[in-house]
Sequence to fold (699 residues):
Amino acid sequence: MIYQTLLKEFPYLLEGTLVALELLLAFMSLGFVVGLALSIAEVYGNRLLSTLALMVERFFRGVPAVVLIFLFYYGISDGYDLSPFGAATLALGFRTGAYQSQIFKGAIQAVGSGQMIAARAIGMSKVQAIWSIILPQALRFAIGPWSNEFASELKDTSLAYTIGVVELLRRAKYIVSYTYGNALVVYGLCAILYLILIRLGNMVLYRIESKLSMPGFEMRREGR
Amino acid sequence: MSLLRVEDVHKSYDDLMVLRGITFQMDRGEIKVIIGPSGTGKSTLLRCVNGLAYPEKGRIWIDGEEVTDPKTNINHIRSKVGFVFQSFNLFAHLTALDNVAIGPVKVKGMKKSEARLLAMEELRRVGLEDKADAYPAELSGGQQQRVSIARALAMNPKLILFDEPTSALDPELMGEVLKVMMDLAKEGMTMLVVSHEIGFARAVADEILFLDEGKIIEKGHPSELLTNPANKRTKEFLHQIIELYGEEREKV
Amino acid sequence: MTEFFEFARTYLPVLLEGTALTLQMWAWCILGGTVFGLLLALGRVYGNRPIYALSTGYVELFRGTPMLVQVLFVYFGLPEIGILLSPIAAASIALAMNTAAYQAEYFRGAIQSIETGQVEAARALGMTQIQVISNIILPQALRMVIPQWSNEPILLLKYSSIAFVIGVPELMARAQMIGYSTFRFFDAFLLAALIYLILTTALAQGLDRLERKVRVPTMQIQR
Fold:
């Protein structure tokens, strides 16, 4: 009986997958910008800037994701009507930004200080050097670890459940609620969907990685 | 009865036949040196002797116990046979002293304090008593190899196998290791050595075995084999060695 | 600002009660997860075909699915096959099973990075396989794994917060409860965030000190 329900509701679940992917793309983009900004501030900023960036990073890495989601939701709701999706995007975005800043920092350092010195020596300003010399190289170094982060954040889209975003997990919960007594099967299916999603995601990322790789720009892949 | 008996040993890796019927014997106190081109199975042969590799055909006995019998307690045999590796293989997380002591403690059940005293003795024997508390990463290659010899000696072995003991060492460091090996030879230790060091062979070997393409091509006393080899391939190989390494170091 | 401090003073005790529960869960998770993770790693490195298959399957499953799904599955799904667990037990078990999978990979990497030469040397001395694993492999692997491993306790401390979803009255749940009763949600969560921050920072520093303490110069000259 449950299997018939699941078959009927399958499109509903898949829609949830799309919501999750939407969320992922949204907050990963935010994270990219935040992460890049933080890493540049930490490596090239003055004392004040780099300390500030470090504190931001520490905060978003030391506080649990769900707490951050609720903080953003209630913090902004006073002034501006923020949807759960928006809150989740902001919270998870800043959080991944903090993690990504670590990746970018490592990548920038892998480029080596010699490049910056050479750029300054021919007359470039710091900003020009960062933009045209450092970043193009650093970003290539970052590809491996960044795709690890991307794949791992896919799982964390499920955390948006806690604030009511109707993504894959919440849809599974709704199905569990109205087909009383089938949690095992439904959540099991949900888990399998995530598993497939992540496998597919990893394959796609691997393909992209290979396309973008250049000799001399490999960085070791580590990650959760 | 001979201490080591190797009978018609055959071994292959995947499709490559590495040993094609090796037969020889060793008595107590004998020293034999195996020479030959690289990749001809010399290391494999040594590993067959203490059971680290298993021949497809043929049998090996040490002190009357058959190594190649699946029912033998191989660890018991190994505790009587020392093995010195080309890449030292010291235990990275233990000091020199503990590297030497761990065998007696874990395999022979000796008390730790007793083993440490024994280990100190062996380190003194190889000239490294002042490095007892050093970790392998803090020792030079020659020192590491000497510790590994001490580690083998601590087990009071009847026979020690040496797998190209000086090949991984810089020239300046080879001497200290060869000296320890010479001292052991003089004390009457039974040694089976795979090496390129012709000078060492000339000085202490009772017999040299020339191994090529998995077979013993020629064997004989150094005074004959080195000066007047009977086989053409032996002659060619010795020529190469002398060209590559220069005249044998007499200072050994 | 002073308003916040007043708020903090009033509600800190409640939050600290929740914190105690958080730490309790966390301790059990780390303990169970590490032991189980080590066993899984040994299974993947030394196990025979079926053991290897089982442990690999387990690791893939738990690393490839979200933690929240695992918690919900354990708490709501298992009762359907007769395993009834309290919220705190369910959360602890799910989290422990999760961290075990990640730790298994860290341990496996460390074990396999120890050159086979040392294993050969140990066997040449006459040690049994078990002696080799416990005297040579593990002492080194456990030291080498610490930098990567220390991510886990910190991560677990943060992820313990998802237990609030199934009703465990830990730190996050208490903050939410305070929010419901005072409508000062932001302040409550901010206070909770600060507590988490202090805990994770202290933990990170402690683990750093641990790493430095057990470090042994383990660079083997490779050939």
Observations:
- Chain B has a mean pLDDT of 90.
- Strands of chain B lie at 4-13, 16-26, 31-35, 57-62, 65-66, 81-84, 159-163, 191-194, 207-212, 215-220.
